[in-house]
Design goal:
- By secondary structure, the chain is of the alpha+beta class.
- It is built from twelve helices and 21 strands.
- The protein has helices at about 30-35, 40-50, 175-180, 190-195, 215-220, 235-240, 245-260, 275-280, 290-295, 315-330, 345-350, 365-380; strands at about 1-5, 10-15, 15-20, 25-30, 55-60, 65-75, 85-90, 95-100, 105-110, 115-120, 125, 135-140, 145-155, 160, 170-175, 200-205, 225-230, 265-270, 285, 300, 335-340.
- The strands form five sheets. Strands 1, 6, 9, 10, 11 and 13 form a six-stranded mixed sheet that branches. Strands 2, 5, 7, 8, 12 and 14 form a six-stranded antiparallel sheet that branches.
- A hairpin with a 2-residue loop joins strand 7 (about 85-90) and strand 8 (about 95-100).
- Helix 4 packs across helix 12 (about 365-380).
- The radius of gyration is 21 Å and the shape is globular.
- It starts with a strand and ends in a 7-residue tail after the last helix.
- About 40% of the residues are buried.
């Protein structure tokens, strides 16, 4: 077996930083400077989960081995979480799928937020039966499981996939963009759209953490990209983070920072998808105690609709404000566009494919959203074509 250096330039795609740990290399989706500016454990967990991160190499190997140390999350009283999935593609076509047993365990009490971390052993994933010819191989890491990379081996020499001249699509959003309950890393809606459109994805979807943070805007500003999209709104409502007075200037500042580094790059603002609990009811969102008592996860909105008059945000308010902001800015920025999130998942979709926990789409809905985004935004004639 040939050992491929994990730090070989161009091998790891979709990560903005690599941290050397006692076990190997930990991909990060936010740079160290951004991570140093926020001590929120939710953000730390989200950005360390490698949604959209993949190893891409060219080889004629028929067997590939990857050693990793995953971190498994356990929520006492809630249903067990399935192991993270690794997808292997050959020349862009699915060819294998695996999970990594063992690894660290992170226990999180959903009621108190208390955590406990227990170290565990590395695991080896083995993919066999690959075609015996030169080919591009990608291993997409689990979108929802922190993963430390230890070693990559092949039974024939391998090199990082050369630059194919594909456009880089940089996307930021909430847990829906992160992947929430997608079936696998290539089945999150951004991955699905990117693979269909033939673009290179850098996914800064951060579960629970799409909060217009200045350090996230600077990460977007400083990341090379040909196409950029930002999905704004759901986390701001379900975290009850700010009022309307702060929201508008915060959106302007976020977009200004991105434009400092990408003055003429196509930039698409996506307003919230349909989500009944927050359409007209402010946050914060909270776990539904009745469902937790039954061993199920679900969310409810705890705000008062009457407080909208005092500036509390709902998804309806956010969509209206985003439409106004983009319309006003587009007069001087012809490369700025708006996509109403309900075109990706609307009221009719919810009637057919309801959100199982009240906030997050299921696996089938991720595929639908990805296909629609590819058709509406990335296809010829779209704002990110």
């Amino acid at each position: 077996m040939h050992t491929i250096p994990l730090t070989a330039p161009g091998l790891l795609r979709g990560a903005l930083d690599l941290e050397r740990t006692a076990y190997g290399l930990l991909p990060h989706r936010l740079p160290a400077r951004a991570r140093a500016q926020c001590a929120d454990p939710q953000l730390a967990l989200a950005e360390s989960q490698p949604s959209g991160v993949r190893l891409a190499f060219r080889t004629r190997a028929t067997t590939v081995e990857l050693d990793t140390v995953p971190t498994k999350r356990v929520h006492p009283g809630a249903p067990p979480r399935p192991d993270g999935v690794y997808d292997l593609l050959v020349d862009g076509v699915p060819h294998g799928r695996a999970t990594a047993p063992g690894g660290h365990t992170l226990t999180v009490d959903l009621g108190t937020g208390a955590t406990e971390h227990r170290p565990g052993p590395a695991a080896t994933l083995r993919f066999t039966g690959l075609p015996d010819h030169d080919k591009d191989v990608e291993i997409w890491l689990p979108h929802n499981e922190t993963t430390e990379l230890v070693a990559l081996r092949t039974d024939a020499p391998a090199i990082p996939v050369p630059d194919r001249g594909r456009k880089v699509w940089l996307h930021h959003g909430s847990s829906v963009s992160h992947g929430s309950d997608a079936a696998s890393p290539t089945a999150t809606w951004p991955a699905r759209a990117a693979l269909r459109a033939g673009v290179e994805l850098v996914n800064l979807g951060l579960g629970g953490s799409a909060l217009l943070d200045p350090f996230t805007a600077r990460a977007l500003r400083d990341t090379p990209a040909d196409l950029i999209s930002v999905k704004i709104g759901l986390n701001l409502v379900n975290a009850d983070l700010m009022r309307l007075r702060a929201f508008g200037p915060a959106v302007h500042g976020f977009l200004d920072t991105i434009r400092d580094g990408h003055p003429a790059t196509p930039l698409l603002v996506i307003s919230p998808l349909h989500c009944p609990i927050h359409e007209d009811t402010p946050g914060p969102a909270a776990f539904d105690p009745a469902l937790l008592a039954e061993g199920r996860l679900g969310f409810r909105a705890t705000g008062d609709p009457a407080e909208v008059a005092a500036g509390k945000l709902t998804l309806t308010v956010v969509r209206e404000e985003l439409a106004r902001i983009v319309r006003d800015r587009a007069a001087a920025d012809p490369h700025l566009h708006l996509l109403d999130g309900r075109a990706l998942y609307g009221e009719a979709d919810h009637a057919e494919l309801p959100l199982p926990d009240g906030l997050h789409p299921d696996a089938a809905t991720h595929l639908r959203i990805g296909d629609r985004f590819a058709d509406l935004a990335l296809a010829p004639g779209g704002p990110l074509s």
